Amino acid sequence: MPKRLAINLCKVRLALLLNKFQMTQTFIVNPGGKLHGTLRVPGDKSISHRAIMLGALSTHGTTHVNGFLEGEDTLATLAAFQAMGVSIERAYQGEVTIHGVGLHGLQAPSAPLYLGNSGTSMRLLSGLMAGQAFSVEMGGDASLSRRPMRRVTEPLSTMGAWIETTEKGMPPLKVHGGQRLQGINYTLPVASAQVESCLLLAGLYAEGTTCVTAPAPTRDHTERMLAGFGYPVQREGLRVCLQGGGKLQANSIEVPADISSAAFFMVGASIAQSADVLLEHVGINPTRMGVINILRQMGADISLHNQRKVGFEPVADIRVCASQLHGIDIPKEQVPLAIDEFPVLFIAAACAAGETVLTGAQELRVKESDRIQVMAEGLRALGIDAQPTPDGMIIQGGQIRGGVVNSHGDHRVAMAFTIAALRANDTITIEDCANVATSFPNFVELAQAVGIDIRL
Ligand code: S3P
């Protein structure tokens, strides 16, 4: 690793350490609670990231965003573009105005970009930065610094990009500017929207056509938003293509509530006695619907109301009532459509009658934590028979006990174990919860408001 990159990495790690030292957070959740009420969870994380990116790269225009997720991850993306000279104003909660600078209007940042916990920021920005005239360094927290980046750097280097990683192919990254990119025809080894989006964004700067083929459907927010910004994108089945050299037209964006955040309350309302919850204005893009499909197959009582299209995305109000869940073999094709929801789906499985088997989900091992290992350890600490496998888990439904679990700094693990308390017979203490702020900053307040007995 070059010396300057190593020094910058040390600075980033020091900042992280100080930050974590000040911010260690524990959730204490008392057992029981009846989930009732209407709530709107914060804006979709994936769409919020992309709104900043495409808004910033639009030619001569202002993009107004409503419902933007003011979480640490998306704010890291926002700060990165401000550091590259883009004027971005935040007004009321979730209202953001971005003054586009065009595809070639970004400026070199004066310091490395710090992207915190956010894999989406780092992977999507890798593609965008590969096409710039200037060089950029990007780093993140301890979790992000352990996440695999070769999945983006390898295809990007085939396009002509020059990106340095650590020896293990992890952050920090140094993206060298001034390279000529060529379109490629790339087949993804794993279904990953981050890699697909990264390559499409690099493709904006490439000569010729960039085509990406996924082994299975993944979230398609990038191509929907590109099309919404007037950039032609062609899709044929699992293959998506675009031509470099076009322009993005500024547009307004309404970000729906994040189905991945709503998922905690969907499972909560399914497992809590006589629960009845209405989740408003939730994004129901078919490429994100896995959690609903899986829960329904387990016997959940979920109904969609007032279905409508808002901007580029379908939206609905989702009502969830208590039900008796039963274990299932989770269909493999649902895995990429529910990839972020497995921590809380494991809680659903722990409360279901019989056995639930997940396979084909090895990607969970390289998320913000190793979600197979960390969730299995936590479930076992709470008395549930959970057997981790290389690519999934086998869970026998049973009585959740009280106890202490560690989220390993993983936001979705922390929130999943909070939901488990609804069916526990004693208090659950969850350690290392500060990162909940990356995706769901008002989780504790909303959980309290609908009947969960949680305190910090
Ligand atoms: C995301 C894609 C998913 C998901 C992540 C957000 C995105 O990752 O887990 O939280 O916004 O594109 P993969 O593409 O790596 O599966």
TrEMBL record:
Q: Which reaction is catalysed here?
A: 3-phosphoshikimate + phosphoenolpyruvate = 5-O-(1-carboxyvinyl)-3-phosphoshikimate + phosphate
The residue range of the signal peptide is none
Q: Which GO terms describe its cellular component?
A: cytoplasm
Positions annotated to bind phosphoenolpyruvate: K45, G119, R147, Q194, R371, R412
Binding of 3-phosphoshikimate, residues = K45, S46, R50, S192, Q194, D340, K367
Q: Which residues cross the membrane?
A: none
| UniProt-listed GO biological process terms | amino acid biosynthetic process; aromatic amino acid family biosynthetic process; chorismate biosynthetic process
Domain of life of the native organism = Bacteria
Recorded hits in InterPro entries, A to Z, give: Enolpyruvate_Tfrase_dom (IPR001986), Enolpyruvate_Tfrase_sf (IPR036968), EPSP_synthase (IPR006264), EPSP_synthase_CS (IPR023193), RNA3'P_cycl/enolpyr_Trfase_a/b (IPR013792)
E.C. code? 2.5.1.19
| Stored Pfam families | EPSP_synthase
* UniProtKB keywords: Amino-acid biosynthesis, Aromatic amino acid biosynthesis, Cytoplasm, Transferase
Q: What interactions and quaternary structure are annotated?
A: Monomer.
The family this protein is said to belong to:
Belongs to the EPSP synthase family.
What does the record give as the function of this protein? Catalyzes the transfer of the enolpyruvyl moiety of phosphoenolpyruvate (PEP) to the 5-hydroxyl of shikimate-3-phosphate (S3P) to produce enolpyruvyl shikimate-3-phosphate and inorganic phosphate.
Q: What is this protein called?
A: 3-phosphoshikimate 1-carboxyvinyltransferase
The upper taxonomy is:
Bacteria, Pseudomonadati, Pseudomonadota, Gammaproteobacteria, Thiotrichales
